[in-house]
Amino acid sequence: MGIEIERKFLVKGDGWRSLGSGTIYRQGYITTENKINTVRVRLIGEQGYLTIKGKTTGATRAEFEYPIPKEDALFMLENLCDHPLIEKTRYKIKQGELIWEVDEFMGDNQGLIIAEVELEQENQAVELPNWIGQEVTGNLQYHNSNLVKYPFKKWKDEHR
Amino acid sequence: MGIEIERKFLVKGDGWRSLGSGTIYRQGYITTENKINTVRVRLIGEQGYLTIKGKTTGATRAEFEYPIPKEDALFMLENLCDHPLIEKTRYKIKQGELIWEVDEFMGDNQGLIIAEVELEQENQAVELPNWIGQEVTGNLQYHNSNLVKYPFKKWKDEHR
């Protein structure tokens, strides 16, 4: 079993772009109706993953991830997941001891860029790079599973 | 990817009991709100399994099953699955070329005994043993995922 402790931020400016290279992620959710647990199918290049996540408490969430065949992931993305799928480019950027994952969304979520950092403990000190903006940890609106039904392009101006 | 083609029947009498030995299955569902796909966690002895099933069409259903560590299964059964869990003894009974799986339910589903047979094709001829009763293939009420919320003991007499 895994525990995911993660803080999430909006990104400002382009200062992060030169710091890492990007990989395309394609993912979908087998269940979004039940808002507590999510079941995610993800394809990164030739490798599929199936991920179960439990309830979020603070910045902590139980997470179980299993590699699955690409063909299984493709079938599930096409036939079992809610559409539209989430497509994004993920940049991994090392800053000091931490790895930041910057997700630049495409499609209906174009314009949204989110940075995540995985921690060992909830109260761990984090030095924020200057391209990090507002913290959105725990804000369900920014959960990728919610970006399927309520993509960024539908958000009202006051939420931006 | 797998395709599950399965016919399901009620069981009558005890003629099947001497024909195979039983193993205890403990399972739960991470999602039952979305009635099309199910995500099942199962523990058989020391081995956990995670299973994704798609929409049922006739007797056919897309199915993906992955072995997972026992500890993962235990955590998910306890913390992520809807309760009560499904507990049953499964008997595997060979009759001719076919393997029948007879599930004898416990707990809130005690009294319910279902036999399933997996087929290569939907129209495959099946010789029914004399302990096989009414066919319930495609009847959602008998899906294990629905037995969590609507267990057998709550069914009205007219459904029995």
Structure commentary:
Two copies of one chain form a homodimer. Chain A has 160 residues and is mainly beta. Chain A has a single domain (3-158), classed as Beta Barrel (Hypothetical Protein Pfu-838710-001). Helices cover 9% and strands 47% of the residues of chain A. Chain A has two helices and nine strands; from the N terminus they run E-E-E-E-E-H-E-E-E-E-H. The first copy, chain A, has an eight-stranded antiparallel β-barrel with strand order 1-5-4-3-2-6-7-8. In chain A, a hairpin with a 7-residue loop joins strand 7 (98-105) and strand 8. The longest helix of chain A is centred in the middle third of the chain and has 10 residues, at 70-79. The radius of gyration of chain A is 15 Å and the shape is globular. The first copy, chain A, starts with a strand and ends in an 11-residue tail after the last helix. In chain A, 32% of the residues are buried. Chains A and B meet through strand 4, strand 5 and helix 1 of A and strand 4, strand 5 and helix 1 of B. Chains A, B: InterPro entries: CYTH-like_dom_sf, CYTH_domain, NeuTTM/CthTTM-like. Chains A, B: Pfam families: CYTH (PF01928). Chains A, B: This is Adenylate cyclase.
Features:
160 residues; Hypothetical Protein Pfu-838710-001; mainly beta; homodimer
Summarize the structure.
The structure is a homodimer of 160-residue chains. Helices cover 9% and strands 47% of the residues of chain A.
DSSP helix fraction of chain A? under 10%
Number of structural domains of chain A: 1
- For the secondary structure, the number of strands of chain A is 9
CATH architecture of chain A: Beta Barrel
Q: Name the overall outline of chain A.
A: globular
Order of helices and strands of chain A: EEEEEHEEEEH
Provide the structure class of chain A.
mainly beta
> From the alpha-carbon coordinates, what is the Rg of chain A to the nearest angstrom?
15 Å
Question: Major sheet of chain A: order of its strands?
Answer: 1-5-4-3-2-6-7-8
Biggest interface and its residues per chain?
A-B, 21 and 22 residues
Residue runs with pLDDT of under 50 for 5 or more positions of chain A: none
- Assigned CATH class of chain A: Mainly Beta
